[in-house]
Specification:
Length: about 170
């Protein structure tokens, strides 16, 4: 697996307040398990595209899963260019909470999972998290994708960026 073109951060910007007391991996886990949707960034045809997706992550945070109909631009772009980013955030409803916003950008490689036990496992995770997707995921016109996570870039207070790279087996 070639990750040479992935961004590498130096030591994170030191923070203020108590957020540093929560380990970074737990802050990331908190975001990806409490927020149901994210924006999937793909590219092709000379443009970047953002698409809202429902997702589920593996327990070890090395993999994520989402689905899309096969008759979409998103599907076509994913099959042409496998490098993606997924942005998940907890934006608040009120402007006075602006400094409480956290976001994580997940970078990685997406691949369609073919029919079989592996796809069933990915689908189970999505259904467990999003039961309303059960019939959509069972449709012949639905593709299930797995993201092989390269790294997480976590941002809080609009300027503090930290990076976590999951250990690969």
């Amino acid at each position: 697996m070639n990750r040479d073109d992935e961004p590498v951060l130096e030591a994170g910007v030191p923070g203020q307040g108590g957020q540093e007391s929560i380990p970074l991996v737990e802050r990331i886990r908190g975001l990806v398990t409490t927020q149901p949707y994210g924006v999937l960034a793909t590219h092709g045809d000379g443009h970047a595209y953002g698409s809202l997706v429902a997702f589920a992550f593996s327990e070890n945070l090395r993999r994520a899963y989402f689905a899309t109909p096969t008759a979409t631009r998103k599907y076509r772009l994913l099959t042409e260019h496998d490098r993606i980013a997924l942005v998940v955030d907890n934006r608040p409803d009120h402007a006075d909470q602006m400094m409480e916003v956290e976001a994580v950008t997940v970078t990685g490689r997406a691949r369609e999972i073919p029919q079989g036990p592996e796809r069933e496992a990915g689908t189970e995770g999505l259904v467990a998290r999003h039961p309303q997707l059960r019939s959509f995921l069972a449709a012949d016109s639905c593709a299930v994708f797995e993201i092989e996570v390269f790294r997480y870039l976590h941002v809080c207070r609009f300027q503090e960026v930290r990076q976590w790279v999951p250990e690969q087996p």
